[in-house]
Amino acid sequence: MTDQVRIRNQGGTPAAEAVEAEPACERQVVPGRPQEPGVPVRAVRDQAVAVIARLGFPRVEDLGTRFDPARHEAVSTVEDPEAEAGTVVAVIRPGYGDGPDQLRPASVVVSTKAED
């Protein structure tokens, strides 16, 4: 059985939905009409994020939350006088899922206390 036949037979499954993410890029491009930069890529990303969520791993919004080593991977720190020390001030790579159902931790930048 070819991959195309397998996918056709799995209509409505996450595998079939993921495969349809690629044509979303093509649907966003209209010949002869200027496009906002990144629109096709955003459309594919949005569709992929939705499929991952349906698989049980929703994207987690971590900006402004307290750093938690069980949920986050600190990739950098920065002094930020406007944020409490230990706060996520930037998300480099979003996390998916939570607790025991975490697919990937978020890679984040964490605020530190300013040194005097």
List its traits.
single chain; 116 residues; alpha+beta; three-stranded mixed beta sheet; two-stranded antiparallel sheet; disordered N terminus
Tell me about this structure.
There is one protein chain. The chain is an alpha+beta fold and 116 residues long. It is built from four helices and five strands, in the order ααααβββββ. The strands form two sheets. A three-stranded mixed sheet has the order 2-5-3, with no helix packed on it. A two-stranded antiparallel ribbon has the order 1-4. The chain starts with a helix and ends with a strand.
Q: Calculate the mean pLDDT score and round it.
A: 77
How many helices does DSSP assign? 4
The total count of strands amounts to 5
- The SSE string, one letter per element, is HHHHEEEEE
Radius of gyration: 19 Å
How helix-rich are the residues, as a percent range? 25-40%
Shape estimate: flat
Biggest pleated-sheet summary: 3 strands, mixed
Low-confidence stretches: 1-10
- Report the end-to-end length measured between terminal Cα atoms: 68 Å
How does the SSE layout of this entry go?
Elements: H1 3-9, H2 14-19, H3 21-28, H4 39-54, E1 59-60, E2 72-79, E3 88-93, E4 95-96, E5 106-112
Parallel strand pairs: 2-5
Antiparallel strand pairs: 1-4, 3-5
